[in-house]
Amino acid sequence: xxxxxxxxxxxxxxxxGMIALGGSYVLLVMLLIAGDVVFTTPQALWExxxxxxxxxxxxLSIISSTITAILALWVAVPLGYLLSRxxxxxxxxxxTAGRPLRSRLTNAAIAVIDTVIDIPLVLxxxxxxxxxxxxxxYPPLSAISDHIVYEVPAVILAQFTVACAxxxxxxxxxxxxxxxxxxxxxxxxxxxxxxxxxTVLLPQARRGMVAAATLSWARAIGxxxxxxxxxxxxxxxxxxxxxxxxxxxxxxxxxxxxxxxxCMIAVAMLVLVIVRLVGxxxxx
Length: 284
Description:
The protein is 81% helix and 0% strand. The protein has helices spanning 7-39, 42-49, 52-92, 100-122, 125-135, 145-148, 152-176, 180-188, 193-204, 206-221, 225-230, 241-251, 254-283. Helix 3 packs antiparallel against helix 4 (100-122) and helix 10 (206-221) packs antiparallel against helix 13. The protein is globular and about 65 Å long. The termini are far apart.
């Protein structure tokens, strides 16, 4: 009997199981969004954003997240490049068999830096905020703490501390996917590392840069714990949308909290749509 006769049935069972498992999460996310939208009325949205404090927190969230994304990308691109190229050059040189001591030291340094980058991702958000608060209580940062802590710069720094880790991880993966041989060929033709970076690597890393900026922006606008601890929730000064939701829930004002939540969902979806429909086409 032909074994291929059994394939359609087995494939159907396999695909049905995969769709059921993967689709369950997609359905959960859609239900969460639908629940918020259905519960919130246009009147509740209007009343929430008629409040001056909420409008301020909205614009502070948008502006601070944009600044954070720019700063995160500014740092993540060179950091991702260094981590990726150190690693790939060790592999290309034959690893520890090629240059034993130097390779081991380099690999150890990469492992340490990789671990440090991951720390903000695994730490509880409140711990990140407390750590920032403690950091600015010691010299020399204590000299400028009055201008940073519980001020707008604290919002950006708290967002940046976590968001930059996502951007750096994305950029390293992006550079890892670009063959090292292209750089080596360009350098044999007389190009410097800087010229190779700007003319060979960076044009090919544009997709990763868009992804890194989007991830860091989305993470920044939803950052709550570090912002609450390090910047506080001072009305008309450091209050952002996540802290607004928290405060409204503490007041028992569920309609206002849901209205702000729906606004955050709408802004996040708008950014994702713009990236996919506009930004993505420009870089392909």
